[in-house]
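step 4 of 6: structure.
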Amino acid sequence: MVAAKSGRTKRRREILLQAAAEVFFEQGYAATSIDAIIERAGGSKRNIYNEFGNKEGLFAAIVAENADKVLSTLAIEEIEGHDLEETLTAFGRRLMELYKSPTLIGIYRIAITETNRFPDLVKSFHEQGPGRATSRLAEVLEVARQRGEIRTADCLRVAGHFVGMIRDNLLQVILGIRPSPSDEESRVAVASAVEIFLNGVRPRQDKQTDRP
Amino acid sequence: MVAAKSGRTKRRREILLQAAAEVFFEQGYAATSIDAIIERAGGSKRNIYNEFGNKEGLFAAIVAENADKVLSTLAIEEIEGHDLEETLTAFGRRLMELYKSPTLIGIYRIAITETNRFPDLVKSFHEQGPGRATSRLAEVLEVARQRGEIRTADCLRVAGHFVGMIRDNLLQVILGIRPSPSDEESRVAVASAVEIFLNGVRPRQDKQTDRP
DNA sequence: GCCCTCCGGTAATGTGCGTTACCATTGACA
DNA sequence: TGTCAATGGTAACGCACATTACCGGAGGGC
């Protein structure tokens, strides 16, 4: 029965996490009751208390599971060989895609409110997920800077600017004012941000110093 | 007796709103108890129920009061005569200033979570406050575009980009990861965003997005 | 087949909280 | 100063909910 963890129990855990995430993201931490989660997941409360200890444990498990997903979606590795414009576009598209997922929206929503209750949790979520993606982008920009493709004093800062431009679309979605942008809208928004950003950081033309 | 609303009662109302805002912003709507508010404001619960009816009424009053403040801080009127760079810088500074205020951070924080509970309230907050500021910026950009100072297909979209760049600094503050930026940091961040933005949308002599 | 351990379900238990019933106090007006 | 209305305080009510006690049953080890 020790090995029982593999089959049923693991699957059960997934179901609980999924259901709990939905309710937490929809209602917020404080307003979510264990009963509501069970109502969605089936089974009984004992189930949750056996697996996660208590409400906080369940919540922590959810947040931890999702930071990884964010990070893996935003890894910039295979893109690095390409043109900067292509890289930024690809990165921007994926960022946009991510921001359209109800899960990430939910995580952000709840992280923002529960900062006081779970400071460490939120901090590590951001650092391991979104924050790391930004600093990875900054590294890419740093390489481009050394090649003279872009001109900037602070790669991390301008990476933040880029992410901010993409993320602007998110605020209204998070606030429930607008539905998630369509693929076409995303494409246009990313293209627009990339264009402005690249023009913005491109070396000035006064001397026409660098390449082609 | 009817006129009593003027003196004491009004002042009392202010104190209640202030204390309630602090607790709501700190703990979130669901986790805030009326007792906690009273503990901070003094007096008794009856006080709140007489003035605002119930918890929801109190919350609604807070949100409504603050949308105005946001909007008035971000009015772009007196700046219009100036250079576009000056206008953007001034607008960016004020935006940054606003995002440093605990009140606005609190409002955002709570608006983001309570979207499901108070959709209309949140919607009208955004439309009357931050949203309107962005569209006002878009109008300014439209004028600049007609003068040929900038080149863009969609002023509202790029206004969003600009606001997004500024707001990027806010996310980490809202998440409680970083303290509010100092005046100096704000200055630098705004200058950086303005520079990139202006270069980004400035008309170009030749097409250079495609390589030879 | 029998026992024993663990898992899951149900029904408490205790607490916190929004809301209200009820009473004391106050302050205006005659 | 006496009366009345409204305001502020206290204590109670009822409910929702996190957590746990208790119990039945399933399934592996002998």
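step 5 of 6: annotate
 - Chain A has two domains: 1-53, 63-201.
 - Residues 1, 33-35, 45-46, 49, 54-55 of chain A lie near DNA strand D (CB under 10 Å from a C1').
step 6 of 6: archive
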